[in-house]
Amino acid sequence: MPPLSIRDLPRTAHKVTQQGSTFYVIGDERARLRDAYHTFLQMRWSASIALIALGFIAVNLVFAVGYYVFGGVTGTDGSFFEATSFSVETLATIGYGAMYPTSTIAHILMIIESIVSLILTALVTGLVFTKFARPTTRIAFSTSAVVTPHEGMRTLIFRASNRRSNVIVEATIHVVAVFTTFTAEGKMFYKAVDLKMVRDRQVGMTRGWTLMHVVDDTSPLFGADAKKLQELEFELYIALTGIDDVSMQTVHAMHKYTDAQIRVDHHFEDSLIPLDNGEFLVDLTKFDVVVPDAATHDSVRA
Length: 302
Description:
By secondary structure, the protein is α+β, with helices and mostly antiparallel strands.
């Protein structure tokens, strides 16, 4: 089946970007209002603050129109700016006392705005606190994964590093290989295979962790060179979870390697340097440094 031209996509198709992958979706249920909470938590802080400010301004403008049209506020010159100022004082519970409602309709608007103010303040406080209290990590993954001989076996290797001074307790790694294949019916299928890691758990992750997967005859990498990886559209998806020993909350990090980021017959440069006093130097400047193997191979076959 030939690829569908992007120009032939229906207007209802919307673009989605997740974990570095971009695709288009049609026919899904859009529920922006029901997903507003998650959307807010996923937004950058600058966008979140801007959204709160815009909401505050919008609510004030709505009530300002009421005060401007119906009047009944003493201490104003009757301008829309003064009506907006009174709305801000009411919504923010400032109450300088220079302006106050005198008519029935103005009192009703003030009561309604006070109720709205209580609800908005509670909502915004909860959203900001939840966003601020979300557990985060500073886990870095090496820019490339390599396939190189290790302990006499061809091995897939990549690095993970904790850039904070805390400890991630019971850190667990889960690696999935995704690649294209064809079913018995001749249909293209994206297959996902869990990779067995040499060690998928660490009692306490501090600065660095070297992750390894042995490329044996059960591995989806077996017998594949760089060209074959490209043909398979080979990708690695990594999920790391653990408990932050400071906040005592579960934290996680995700990363993806494309076929172009898997370097066959390359190895990482040593970043752990022994010192003459028996201690070690961790050189993070070499965290991403990859160099070719001395003797190259045609494939990643063990």
